[in-house]
Each structure stands twice: as C-alpha cells, then as structure tokens.
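Quick one, tokens below:
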C-alpha cells in the first residue's frame, strides 16, 4: 500500500469519525475541516503517482452520506419533540380530573376510590392494603363484580390511617384456595402533565407519576 493511499484513507476516516460523533450543529464546521484535509492531501500527493480522482469522489460521497444522516436524525428528533408536545397539549385537559391507573394512592384523610381486579372464576375476593413500607395494614372482603370500592382509610378500631401512599391488591380465591393476586387500580387527581424521558407523564396528587399510556380511564373529579 503506498503513502497516498494511506493518507487518503486516514483523511476519510478522520472526517467521517468527526461527523459521526458530532452533532448536527457542528456538521458544517466538520465539513470545512474535511475539505481542508482533502486540499492538503491533493497538494502533497506524489506528482508521479497522483491519487485517482475517483478516490476523491468516494471520500466526498462518504462524508456527504454521513452529513445527510446526521441531518436526518436531527429532523426525526425535531418531529418526535413536536409530536410529544402535541400530545402534552391534549393531556393538559386532564389536569384537575381523576385518572385511573395501577399505582399507589395518596391518602390524606379523603376516601380513595379503588377498582379491584378479581380473577375470573373466583368465588371470593379480598382487597389488601399496604403502606409505603410494604407492610399489610388492612384486608377487606369485597364483591366479585369489580365495581369500585371506596376505601375510607379507617382502622378496625375507628382510628384514621396515617397520611401517605397506599398500595392495593386484589386476592382472588376459589374453594378456599388463592388463585390469583392482582394489582388494583385507583383513581387519583391529576395535578400536572409533563414529558419525562420522552414519555407523556401525569403527576398525581401526592407527587407520584404515571405514564399516560398506563391510564385506563379518566373521569370528572366533581362526579366521583
């Protein structure tokens, strides 16, 4: 392999690496650097053994392809951002409403609306309540029709549970044997909508967040 070939390959590799690792904002300056390198290569080639013009064309085409790819990626990111913002604008109407999702509910003394998830074929079911530490604090018998249950947050002795987040599970049984344990959904008031890691996200009362795609229902808080 002659020196000119090595110089040509090095110039191409260096320019392509610079463009591929940089951002769209630097692609113009990178391209100017590449042209300067190509000019130096042409000026210092062996006049008795010049680099073939097709090699220069190949280098230019290679860098041009990288440039177009970077610009395409920037365009796709821009489109994705616009789509996310558009979805956020639509979700803004959910603020102040109650969203239903399989997340812990924040209890501050006000009753919590819980939607059980009883396994099909069960002949008995219970709603099990866990505190933020994961300890079971209550177990209530419920119906099999998966109708919303209002959890008042009151202990057996009549005292109120401490404020905080509570998680709910539905334990389904058949012939006195547990057949399934499923997460129950809760209704919580939406206080904010935001884009988090590129995902449309709802901030619920109490500060917990949930992806908008995990919400299974939305209702007017005044009608709950």
């Amino acid at each position: 392999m002659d020196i000119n070939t090595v110089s040509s390959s090095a110039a191409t590799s260096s320019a392509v690496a610079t463009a591929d690792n940089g951002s769209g904002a630097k692609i113009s300056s990178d391209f100017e650097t590449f042209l300067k390198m190509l000019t130096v290569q042409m000026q210092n080639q062996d006049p008795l053994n010049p680099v073939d013009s097709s090699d220069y064309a190949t280098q230019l085409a290679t860098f041009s392809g990288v440039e177009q790819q970077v610009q395409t990626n920037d365009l796709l990111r821009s489109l994705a951002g616009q789509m996310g913002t558009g979805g956020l604008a639509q979700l803004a109407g959910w603020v102040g409403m109650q969203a239903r999702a399989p997340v812990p509910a924040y209890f501050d003394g006000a009753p919590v609306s819980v939607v059980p998830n009883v396994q099909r074929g069960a002949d008995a079911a219970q709603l099990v309540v866990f505190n933020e530490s994961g300890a079971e604090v209550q177990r209530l018998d419920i119906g099999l029709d998966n109708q919303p249950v209002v959890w008042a947050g009151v202990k057996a002795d009549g005292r109120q549970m401490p404020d905080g987040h509570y998680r709910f599970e539905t334990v389904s049984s058949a012939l006195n044997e547990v057949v399934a344990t499923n997460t129950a959904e809760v209704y919580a008031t939406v206080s904010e909508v935001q884009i988090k890691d590129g995902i449309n996200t709802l901030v619920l009362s109490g500060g917990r967040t949930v992806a908008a795609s995990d919400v299974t229902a939305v209702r007017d808080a005044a009608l709950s």
